[in-house]
Write a structure and sequence with these properties.
The structure is a single chain. The chain has eight helices and seven strands. By secondary structure, it is an alpha+beta fold. The chain has three domains: 101 residues, Serine Threonine Protein Phosphatase 5, Tetratricopeptide repeat; 75 residues; 60 residues, SH3 Domains (SH3 type barrels). The chain has a five-stranded antiparallel β-sheet. The protein has a two-stranded antiparallel sheet with strand order 2-3. It is extended.
Length: 254
């Protein structure tokens, strides 16, 4: 067998395996939906988890998994699934609605620290305009800017110069907020390290050991930000600014 034929067989086997895995995931998804409609929520959740274990992570899978856990009364797993679905589809109203419903079942009511107006504006805009759209707008603005400057350099007729000035100036003005928004979205997407508390009750410590002073108590389902970790402990930051250490096993990263 030649090397080329051997490579062709390898590629064919990989493609067949990929198609087979995709078909299995599709079958599991339909089976999960059917089990959910029959009220067998634990079996439905197992079917969706099987899909995720195969590497097929989609917003619909996480959403349906969250619905199954919600119907089973498992608050933390439901919130975790909805949060992961929201990461994949940030503007989906159904995911947001169900997440808000299950969050009502959590015990903690944390009052977040107020943000500066500019930061709040950026976050609100990021929800409406995803990062990929911002990047495209940024590229278009640069094209218009350079196009306008090129016209200013090459043309001599007055009406064309006037239009080129307007286009170039508008593109330059648009580039300023687009640049700020893109940098903010990119930094946020890379720095987000949130987690959901999975243990029923957790006492956060002032240091990463059991001998540390009690800092505060949190409960199942609370969303926290992770800022550090050491030897099986993670430092969590609450929305109100409180900081404490909890065991890594007591929470799960989104």
């Amino acid at each position: 067998m030649t090397v080329q034929r051997f490579c062709a067989w390898i590629v064919l086997l990989v493609l067949v395996g990929a198609v087979g895995s995709a078909q299995t995931a599709s079958d599991d998804f339909e089976r999960g939906n059917s089990l959910y409609r029959e009220g067998k929520f634990d079996q439905a959740a197992a079917a969706y988890e099987a899909i995720l274990s195969q590497g097929f992570a989609g917003a619909a899978v996480y959403f349906n998994l969250g619905n199954s856990y919600y119907r089973l009364g498992k608050v933390a797993p439901a919130i975790l699934a909805y949060e992961r679905a929201l990461r994949l589809q940030p503007n989906d109203p159904d995911i947001k609605h169900n997440l808000s419903l299950v969050n009502l079942k959590t015990a903690d009511r944390i009052e977040p620290l107020p943000d500066l107006f500019f930061i709040e504006w950026l976050r609100s805009l990021s929800v409406v305009v995803p990062l990929r759209v911002t990047v495209w707008l940024f590229v278009i603005a640069w094209i218009l800017l350079f196009g306008g400057l090129a016209v200013l350099y090459l043309l001599s007729w007055s009406s064309g110069l006037r239009l080129a000035r307007i286009i170039a100036l508008s593109a330059f003005i648009a580039l300023i907020p687009l640049t700020v928004l893109m940098i903010s979205q990119a930094a946020d997407s890379h720095s987000r390290d949130d987690a959901i508390v999975t243990a029923s009750v957790v006492t956060a410590k002032s240091s990463p050991d059991t001998q540390g002073l009690d800092a505060f108590v949190v409960h199942e389902g609370l969303k926290v930000r992770l800022s550090d970790g050491v030897a099986g402990w993670v430092k969590i930051v609450l929305a109100d600014g409180k900081v404490g250490w909890v065991r890594e096993a007591d929470c799960e990263r989104i």
